[in-house]
């Protein structure tokens, strides 16, 4: 899936456009998330992947798209969580904060509340009650791993490419040098032959 595929998915857009227009949602792009991305891009990825999977599983695609988009709606940097939360566990608390913030910009169904509250299942013991909640918690983990690993693989790919290119340039230079050497040695070889 391309990074911007969601933009061209008309059905998906009907589910989330009203939320994406809210400044409270747009503000998420000001927060770094998983080192390499921002919280808005991460939330859109979780929302869109969850929506695609929900459609395949005949689950509620609208609910996962909306709750997926709002699942990390909190406004502090993860690095400062300890101070901001007075030592409370960020993993446990941020889904509750996100649900409160989300409820201020839209009506949340019980299903959507459950999706947001239980998205940290595994790191917390808040067990999902619906298959839609399992979809979002799974996609959250998938996207988090992707957020962290993609830049690493890109860097490795770039380094390998530049190594191969440098190696190819070295080989070409060597070939050229060998050719020149051979040509310059020819008359010398002739002279040597002539003398003999
Ligand atoms: Fe989260
Ligand atoms: Fe997340």
TrEMBL record:
<dbReference type="GO" id="GO:0016787">
    <property type="term" value="F:hydrolase activity"/>
</dbReference>
<protein>
    <submittedName>
        <fullName>HD family hydrolase</fullName>
    </submittedName>
</protein>
<dbReference type="InterPro" id="IPR006675">
    <property type="entry name" value="HDIG_dom"/>
</dbReference>
<dbReference type="InterPro" id="IPR006674">
    <property type="entry name" value="HD_domain"/>
</dbReference>
<feature type="domain" description="HD">
    <location>
        <begin position="39"/>
        <end position="142"/>
    </location>
</feature>
<keyword id="KW-0378">Hydrolase</keyword>
<dbReference type="InterPro" id="IPR003607">
    <property type="entry name" value="HD/PDEase_dom"/>
</dbReference>
<dbReference type="Pfam" id="PF01966">
    <property type="entry name" value="HD"/>
</dbReference>
